Amino acid sequence: MRSNSSKGLSTANTQPSHNHTHYHATSKRSLTPLSNKTRRQFDPNMLPNPREYYARVLKKFHPRGKQATALCPFHSDRNPSFSVNLIHGMFFCFSCGASGGNVLKFHMRLRGIVSAKAITELGAWNYE
Fold first, then answer.
1. 82 — phi, psi (to 5°)?
2. 77: alpha, beta or left, given left = phi > 0 and alpha = psi -120 to 50?
3. HSE-CB for 25 with a 13 A CA cutoff
4. Is residue 39 part of a domain?
5. Can you tell me the distance from the alpha carbon of 115 to that of 47, in angstroms, rounded to the nearest whole number?
6. What is the CATH number of the domain that holds 81?
7. What pLDDT was estimated at residue 119?
8. What is the pLDDT of residues 8-33, one digit of tens each?
9. Residue 38 — pLDDT band, cuts 50, 70, 90?
């Protein structure tokens, strides 16, 4: 019986090397390579200001002190039934019951995405 080495085949480990380059978004148009030692961690302090964020994404946005009302983006709404806390970002719809604790939860629900993608879109990763 002939061995693999006599056929010119190496018996050494021939698994391909995985030289993946990981990137993070520094802006919407450019990517910067990350070193293998860079860690990312969610930083809630890097979430957008709730007042500015909700004013940008909600229709018929009416701020009143620490609260605001708007049309609910989660159902067809003619009269503002959506309430948001402009300090902490909590939201609640009095018609459909949609609710959450901050801008991140709202963004995840609005876009139908998982938290890691929402954190990336909102720019709330802290790279160490």
1. -100, 125
2. beta
3. 12
4. no
5. 12
6. 3.90.580.10
7. 97
8. 444 454 454 445 455 555 555 556 66
9. confident
Structure tokens at 31: 């990517």
SS3 of residue 49 by DSSP: coil
E strands present in the chain: 22-25, 31-34, 40-42, 62-64, 67-70, 82-85, 91-93, 99-100, 125-127
pTM: 0.70
Which amino acid is present at 53?
Answer: Y
For residues 39 and 128, is the Cβ–Cβ distance under 8 A? Answer: yes
Range of the domain at 127: 46-128
Asked if residues 77 and 71 have their Cβ atoms less than 8 Å apart, the reply is yes
